[in-house]
Here is the input.
Amino acid sequence: MSARMLPVPDGLEGMRVDAGLAKLLGLSRTTVAELAAAGDVLIDGKPAGKSDRLLAGGILEVTLPEPVNHNEVIVEPVPGMTIVFQDDDIVVVSKPVGVAVHPSPGWTGPTVVGGLAAAGLRISTSGSAERQGVVHRLDAGTTGVMVVAKSEHAYTMLKRAFKERTVDKGYTALVQGHPDPTRGTIDAPIDRHPRQDYRYAVVEGGRPSITHYEVVEAFPGASLAEIKLETGRTHQIRVHFSAMRHPCVGDLTYGADPTLAKRLGLTRQWLHARTLGFHHPSDGRWVQFETEFPDDLAKALKILRSEN
Here is the structure.
């Protein structure tokens, strides 16, 4: 255990203990709440509850558990992960469901980074140890095409391309109901959910987030949409369509109908990163890659088409 003592900054005046300490110490609100419940958060020498308010200038004492390395890369083959393309600079993979891009706290399953290492691929050493070569991410429950940098030059160029939004990211989603209009743009800021730390939400003052969509096929109770992302926030497509009351089919975290998901045999959101295009970091030529729908998504779509 280690103890930290520090004054409450002026900028945290009036904030709840869980929100303020999460921001100050880089912890999740859930972790801070657990520390407070265990009596490990003191303000001016007195135990503080997670919902107590912070006063500027007060003295915080926080007892933290010894850190555990949750970010060690486990080198192991990843069944179902295929290499779509590779050269000296990049490797493009088709990520299967149930695979995270890189290690993170609480994740014990396979990762893209670990799978590439098991395949003997050397990737860029840029970025933190567990995220080396990673220039963008897909949720563990989202399948599809993604690129990892192999060279340091490629890492720098691709990071810049994603930041400057010159990468073409095409997704396909099966969403509940029928979005109106059938073609449009969702421009709504996203940040962590104010009460549920594992979710994200449309939040005033959140990070700017823009999603373009077009419905390409309609079924009773659901629509197939092609989506282009202008920004790349965590859970962006899932959050935006949930906010429109058209969550991705099977996405129980964001309000999808469990009965429909069960009927279609889905245990995760129907969302697939179908295409990815960018200027190749070595010579600037435009390259584009595409992956087909995996079996579970294709089966659900077949059921809907048979009923249409």
